[in-house]
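LAB NOTEBOOK - FOLDING QUEUE
OPERATOR: T.R.
BATCH SIZE: 2
PURPOSE: Compare the predicted structure-token outputs for two unrelated chains run back to back under identical settings.
PRIORITY: normal
REVIEWER: second-year student, initials M.K.

ITEM 1
FIELD SEQUENCE / FIELD STRUCTURE:
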Amino acid sequence: MKKKFSTEAKVGVFVIVAIALLAYLTIDVSQLGWTPGGTYKIYTVMENAEGVSKKTPVQVAGIPVGTVSAITLTPDRKAKVEIELRRDIKLGDDVTAEVRTRGVLGDTYIEIFPGSPDAPPIEAGGVVGRVKQPADYQQLVRDLSVLTSDMKEITAAMKTYTVSEHSYTAEILKNMQVLTANLARFSTNNAANMEAVVANMRALTDQLRSFSATSTPDIEIALKRIAEITDKVNSGQGSFGKLVNDPQTIEKTNEILDTVNDLTSGIKRIETEINYHMEYLGSTKDVKNYVGLRFQPRPDKFFLFEVVHDPNPSPSDKTQITTVTTAGGATSTITAETQDFNKVRFSAQLGKKLYDFTLRGGLIESTGGFGVDYTKGPVNLQLSAFDFSADRPHLKFLSQLNLTRSLFLVAGLDDFISREHGLDWFFGAGVRFTDEDIKSLLGTASLAK
């Protein structure tokens, strides 16, 4: 007689199979199989353990080797992470731990980078001393948000200055249109004068031709006399001939020429630069203009003269005291306080270069001051301090990016420690012309004539 399983037996077998499958899936999903040799624990201390929690996977070369078993806070407010590794995983004491993320969901895991194979092994309870801090993505997102806002303001300002009806581009096009109209009117109104000039030039050449034809004999006689004089000078006849052929005269002349060459070579070594740049002030929406002249007699020394036009300068207080005498002999004093707004200012500085740094000082925007510059490749950073008569000195930080030899961009902060107003920021652009550029421009202009 064939035996049949009861309903209770079938349910029991089903439960046992389900438990076995659940245990297998749990081990498989955790990516850490059962290890007969057991596990051991090591520790690491991190400044920021964001995303790390208990059971966070630990990998070596992308292979799961353990999990995070606990996280505690140290007395100095750092995260102490307890890592449980398989007993068969041997690591040196010079390994490096780093928190990473993977996948579109950003799953967090700890990657351990093995060090030297000759390093002594890390024992149970050891501490991983080298930790790479993870990137703070939230701070990065905040910085990108601020940068995007600033870029929107910059593009809006650039659009105002290049696209609007009152922009510089529109003004330039209007001026070009007026210039071409004036040139066309000038050429039309002076056509008769141009023809008269050509006719006069033709008559002058005819007169020169007739003069040379009639004066040929006289010219030949003059040339013969000049040849006779030069023969006498070469032979040493006469005072001038003796002077020219005397060796001492030649030596003295050479000494004078060497002295003149030394003087003129020093002048030629002076490099000259003319520069202009404008700064758009973010707080006042004004444009500040700078025109500079730079003389550099040596590679490590320079003189800088600059004219600054500030449309919204800081006022300077002036006190005027007036003494009034009445008919009775009594006197009284009247004190008046005024404010002077000086829009045009001057700078005259002496600079000395030391490796990548430059020290300069003198008159900065009509007040005494000094500055330090750092130059590396196309980037130039400048920090200036001046106007020490106020409660706090006027500090200005400027960064300059050289796009080409003649074109550059500027940006920075102006008077950023003042108590009278908020943070002033600016950006702008400029051009510079060296003496070689000026010579090239003058040569092109002469060829065009």
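ITEM 2
FIELD SEQUENCE / FIELD STRUCTURE:
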Amino acid sequence: MTAQSLLDRYDCLLLDLDGTVYHGSEAIKGAISGIDVAHTEGVTVRFVTNNASKTPDDVASHLRDLGVPARTEEVATSAQAGARLLATTVSAGVTVLVVGTDALAAEVSAAGLRTTREYSDDVAAVVQGHSPDTAWADLAEACTAIRSGAQWVACNVDPTLPTERGQLPGNGSMVAALRTATGATPAVAGKPEPTLFIETARAAHAETPLVVGDRLDTDIAGAAAADMDALLVLSGVTTPADVLAASEGQRPRYLADDASAVTASADDLAIGERRGWQVDVADGELRVSGSGEPLDLLRALCPLAWQHGIRRASGTTDTAKAVVNTLGVGGIDYR
């Protein structure tokens, strides 16, 4: 009997973008091939991004420029989710103060709401998404509206934004400034809240969606909140040490190097015991013996690390020691 791949087991891939499909201006190795095979085998593909600064058409165009096959209708953004969330919390036609790009403002208008950039007495809500042009004056207008009782929706609360220069302030950092100034807390539309995943899967008519992402605190946490299985890829910000330290609600079902793994055996990617590796708990650490692939060892380490809250591993043989060191989980207590 042929082993089931992830594409056999799931009817829709909900793919994160930065760190999963690309890094800035470069596609990630394996992502294109995995997406190509998904399309060929009739598995629905959706690109789900917390970035609210671009239109779906712009996102799809950027993906195609990188060689990633993508159509506009395959893109789901937190700007769309934010506009939909607003539409359920305020009356049709009311005025919404937009802190973000014109792409976000367009989504709000498409939801049947009026938009403005300045506070007035008729502002009923504030929606906030990332824009590199957001300034103190924009936050001041939003602050006045929120303190006057306006509803507040944040497209996402990611504290940082990955760029070619490294991690820079994201929408969550701007949201934190308004939290401090107003004492209020926004409703959040994007990951890790479940709404974006749930609505995207529903619109795609997916019955068994799989989330594919590189961040524990957004992609994997969002999948858990939406009661969906998740594949964590190590092509982005998450390290093996982070995986061992993953808190409940941020633990993936599958683990791989990159998104090309969607064509691999689902059972081989699943976190759990692995042939060739033996892991035991002794003296407050994970004792490893045996041999095999480093990622298989990481998959085998996770259950005991999560159960016992142990983040330190050590090899009992030279081979095991070398692989533990390769993963970066030996010699340091990550508790």
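REVIEWER COMMENT (ITEM 2): The mean pLDDT is 95.
FOLLOW-UP: none requested
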